[in-house]
Specification:
The complex is a heterodimer of chains A (about 240) and B (about 120).
Chain A lengths: L2 H102 L5 H16 L4 E7 L2 E8 L14 H8 L3 E2 L13 E7 L2 E8 L11 H27 L3
Antiparallel strand pairs in A: 1-2, 1-5, 3-4, 4-5
Chain B lengths: L3 E5 L3 H13 L3 E5 L2 H11 L3 E5 L7 H10 L8 E5 L4 H9 L4 E4 L4 H11 L3
Parallel strand pairs in B: 1-2, 1-3, 3-4, 4-5
Helix pairs in contact in B: 2-3
Classes of the chains: A alpha+beta (about 240), B alpha/beta (about 120).
């Protein structure tokens, strides 16, 4: 190989190598720029992730607070519902007592007062077996009855519920069936005015759908004991006075 | 506008008590003292619901229910029967004639209001 050809080859290789190195340097610079851009983007994304995490944390706290508020609101709502049911129940009880009292005092006719007493026992207390006795001297005269024949009762004694109610001047109640007396009386209510019993109500079997007497029934018994007595007393006075 | 409820019962005590319970529930309450009057008031007043006692003079609750169901103007009115006894016979007869529900005496106010509200879609 001649010296000229050798120099030409070397020059060619050197030029090519330079071009290659220059391309490598340009590519390196481009990649460095890309890497810097990626690093910036990564840092930016990290910042965004951190912000989103912080936002998520705030939202989770807010969600927890809202759940607490919802729980408290539901609790308050339940309390109001319970209170509403209770008030509705009390209203109904008062309505029952008012209806009973109103009916007893709506007339001065003895027969209608006795009818009102029967209606109260049947419809409000829940028994279709009762006798109303008038107290006359030492004896008891049946003046009204439903579902039970008064003559079916054996002679009444002081130990019977009727005798005890008259002696004590307050309603006597058999809370359980085995506490009923030998006549099967569940409750006996003396109608007392000014310390004197005018009459006594004997209630026997309760309706099948009514398993036991309830607190409201006791209030009705107390109401009957006083208001029915007053109503009967007024009716007796009215009868004695005669027609106007 | 308040919904209208017709109470049919021969007992003043029951009418007064039911009226007070239902008036608290913000209903307009009408009353009738027997089956004949009840059927007549149902036709003229077209109530949203009828509370019908079973045992009544002149026309009992079951016959009144049949008359209510037989008339075009009152056929669709929901009826709750009020029975003193929860015997199967009277209940079966009531349902056979088309009553929608029943309550037994002594009337439990919560039960009554719940059934009324249910039938009125409240």
């Amino acid at each position: 190989m001649s010296s000229d050809r050798k120099n030409g080859y070397v020059t060619h290789v050197r030029d090519n190598t330079r071009k290659y190195i220059e391309e490598l340097l340009r590519e390196n610079a481009r990649l460095r720029g890309a890497a810097e851009g990626a690093t910036c983007e990564r840092d930016d994304l990290r910042r965004q992730v951190d912000e989103l995490r912080a936002d998520l944390g705030r939202r989770e706290q807010q969600h927890t607070r809202l759940l607490d508020l919802l729980g408290a609101a539901e609790h308050t709502s339940r309390e109001f519902e319970d209170r509403f049911v209770e008030v509705e129940h009390q209203n109904a009880n008062l309505a029952m007592l008012y209806a009973a009292s109103y009916q007893l005092h709506a007339t001065v006719r003895r027969a209608e007062v006795l009818l009102a007493i029967q209606e109260i026992v049947i419809n409000l207390i829940g028994s279709e077996e009762l006798i109303i006795f008038a107290v006359s001297g030492d004896g008891l005269d049946p003046v009204a009855s439903v579902g039970v024949e008064p003559h079916q009762l054996a002679r009444l004694g002081d130990d019977d519920l009727i005798g005890r109610a008259l002696a004590e001047g307050t309603p006597i109640i058999a809370d359980h069936p085995d506490q009923r007396d030998r006549h099967g009386v569940t409750a006996s209510i003396p109608l007392v005015i000014a310390g004197r019993a005018l009459a006594v109500i004997a209630i026997f079997q309760l309706l099948p759908q009514k398993p036991a007497l309830e607190p409201l029934d006791r209030e009705l018994f107390d109401l009957l004991a006083t208001h029915a007595a007053t109503a009967l007393y007024c009716a007796d006075l009215h009868d004695r006075r005669g027609p106007a | 506008m308040s919904k209208k409820i017709l109470l049919v019962d021969d007992s003043n005590t029951v009418l007064l008590m039911e009226k007070m319970i239902l008036s608290h529930g913000r209903y307009d309450v009408l009353t009738a003292r027997n089956g004949v009057e009840g059927v007549e008031r149902a036709r003229t007043e077209r109530p949203d619901l009828i509370l019908l006692d079973v045992m009544m003079p002149q026309m009992n609750g079951l016959d009144a229910l049949a008359a209510i169901r037989a008339h075009d103007d009152t056929r669709a009115i929901p009826v709750i029967m009020v029975t003193t006894r929860s015997e199967a016979d009277s209940l079966e007869a009531g349902f056979a004639r088309g009553c929608n529900d029943y309550v037994t005496k002594p009337v439990n106010s919560s039960e009554l209001l719940a059934k009324v509200r249910n039938l009125l879609g409240e």
